[in-house]
Design goal:
- The chain has 357 residues and is α/β, with parallel strands linked by helices.
- It contains 8 helices and 23 strands.
- It binds flavin-adenine dinucleotide (FAD) and FE2/S2 (inorganic) cluster (FES).
Length: 357
C-alpha cells in the first residue's frame, strides 16, 4: 500500500501563460515511476480534501516533475507554493504506457497538457534503445542477452565528457556494462569475447546513426537492439512549450498550434502529412495523451490506418487508488462486450481497442 508523503518543493514556476512546472524532491516516487503514471497531489485546505491527479511529466534524479494548468481552486493553490514548501503527494499511481514492444516507429501524440507525460515517455524510450538520455536514474537494462545468464546493462549519463565503457565476456556470470552519453547520435558497440581475459571493446562515436549494437558470444551471433524512431506530434492551443525538451529526445518533432497559423492546431493535421501517414502500420505504434476529443480523433486516425494505439484517458477522480469508484469508465473486451473499470487502477493508459467510445 502506497503512502502519502510530505515532499519538499524544489521549484514551482510558470513556464507559459497559465501553465506551471513543479519539481518535487521525492526519491520514492522518482525511483519507481513509469511513463504514463500519475501522482495525487493534496492541498492543505479542509475545503479541498480530494487530491488532484497530475501526470508524471519527467523524472530528474530524485525529483518528480509535474506540469499543470491553472484550472480551479486546487491548481491555484499549487501555483502559490514556493521552493522549500512541502506538499503531500501519493504515487506513482495507475498503469502507464506499455513500452515492451519496440516497433520501428513510435508516434508520441500529445495535445495541450497531454504533452507533459510524453517527455518522460520519450526519454524512457530513448534510454531503452540503449541511447543515453539524461534520465538521471541512469541504469537501464538494455538486453538480457540470449539466455546465457549474461546481464547487459546500459548506463546513460548526463556527463558529456564521460568515457564510454563496455565490458563483457562469455562467462555466463559476467555483466556487460555499456555507458552511453547524452549525445543522441552516440553509437555504442560492445564486443564480448569467449576469452574472459580479453579486453572488452567499447566504441562510441559521433555517428548520427542512432544505433546500439551488441555483439556477444563467439562472434557468430549478433544481437542487435533496434532503435525505434521516436516521432513527437504535439498540438497546442496557444503557446508552445516543452518542444525543445522533446526535440532533444525524439528523432522528429512536429508541433502545431493556433498561433502557428493553423485554424485549430489539430494534431491530426500533422498525422495526415505524407511522412507520417505513409509509415508502415505493422511497424508503428501510437502513444497518445490529451483531451478526450483529441484522443478520439487520434484513435479514429490510428484505426483507419491500422496502427495500434495506447491512450492516456482522463476522468474525474476521487481517491485515485481504486476505492471510491469515482473514475469508473466503460471498456470493452475483444468480443465487444462492455465492462466497467476504474481508470485510476486499470488506466489511465488504455489500449485503443479496449475503449468503448
Ligand atoms: C490521470 C490524470 C492525469 C492528469 N494529468 C494532468 C497534468 O499532467 N497536468 C494538468 O494540468 N492536468 C492534469 N490532469 C487534470 C487535473 O487533474 C485537473 O486539471 C485538476 O484536478 C483540476 O483541479 P482544480 O482543483 O484546479 O480544478 P477544479 O475544477 O476546482 O476541481 C474540482 C474537482 O474536479 C477535479 N477535476 C477537475 N478537472 C479535472 C480533470 N480534467 N481531470 C480530473 N479531475 C478533474 C479536481 O481534481 C477536483 O477534485 C490529469 C487528470 C487525470 C485524471
Ligand atoms: S478515483 Fe477512486 S476509484 Fe478511481
Amino acid at each position: 500500500m502506497k503512502e502519502i508523503i510530505s515532499a519538499k518543493i524544489v521549484s514551482n514556476e510558470q513556464i507559459v501563460n497559465n501553465i506551471f512546472r513543479m519539481v518535487i524532491n521525492c526519491r520514492d516516487i522518482a525511483s519507481q515511476a513509469e511513463p504514463g503514471q500519475f501522482v495525487d497531489l493534496y492541498t492543505e485546505k479542509d475545503s479541498m480534501l480530494l487530491p488532484r491527479p497530475l501526470s508524471i511529466s519527467d523524472i530528474d534524479k530524485d525529483h518528480v516533475v509535474l506540469v499543470y494548468a491553472l484550472v480551479g481552486k486546487g491548481t491555484r493553490y499549487f501555483s502559490g507554493l514556493k521552493p522549500d514548501d512541502h506538499v503531500r503527494i501519493l504515487g506513482p499511481l495507475g498503469n502507464g504506457f506499455d513500452l515492451k514492444q519496440k516497433p520501428q516507429n513510435i508516434l508520441l501524440v500529445g495535445g495541450g497538457l497531454g504533452v507533459a507525460p510524453l517527455l518522460f515517455t520519450a526519454r524512457k524510450l530513448r534510454e531503452m534503445s540503449g541511447n543515453g538520455s539524461n534520465d538521471s536514474r541512469k541504469e537501464v537494462i538494455a538486453d538480457n542477452s540470449q539466455g546465457f545468464g549474461t546481464k547487459i546493462v546500459a548506463n546513460s549519463s548526463n556527463d558529456p565528457g564521460k568515457e564510454l565503457a563496455a565490458n563483457g565476456s562469455n562467462d555466463s556470470g559476467k555483466e556487460v556494462i555499456a555507458d552511453s552519453r547524452q549525445d543522441p547520435g552516440t553509437k555504442i558497440v560492445a564486443n564480448s569475447s569467449n576469452d574472459p581475459e580479453k579486453e572488452i571493446a567499447a566504441n562510441n562515436s559521433n555517428s548520427s546513426e542512432n544505433e546500439m549494437i551488441i555483439n556477444r558470444s563467439n562472434g557468430s551471433e549478433t544481437n542487435k537492439i533496434e532503435q525505434s524512431n521516436i516521432i513527437a506530434i504535439l498540438g497546442y492551443a496557444k503557446e508552445i512549450w516543452y518542444n525543445k525538451e522533446m526535440e532533444a529526445c525524439c528523432d522528429m518533432t512536429k508541433t502545431i498550434s493556433e498561433n502557428s497559423g493553423s485554424k485549430r492546431g489539430l494534431v491530426t493535421d500533422l498525422l495526415n502529412r505524407d511522412e507520417i501517414s505513409s509509415l508502415p502500420p505493422e511497424a508503428t505504434m501510437i502513444l497518445c495523451c490529451g483531451p478526450r476529443p483529441m484522443l478520439k480523433a487520434v484513435y479514429d486516425w490510428g484505426d483507419a490506418h491500422g496502427i495500434p494505439l495506447q491512450l492516456s484517458m482522463e476522468a474525474r477522480m476521487g481517491c485515485g487508488v481504486g476505492i471510491c469508484h469515482g473514475c469508473t469508465c466503460h471498456l470493452q473486451n475483444a468480443g465487444g462486450q462492455t465492462y466497467r473499470a476504474k481508470l485510476c487502477k486499470y488506466g489511465p493508459v488504455i489500449k485503443g481497442s479496449d475503449i468503448n467510445w
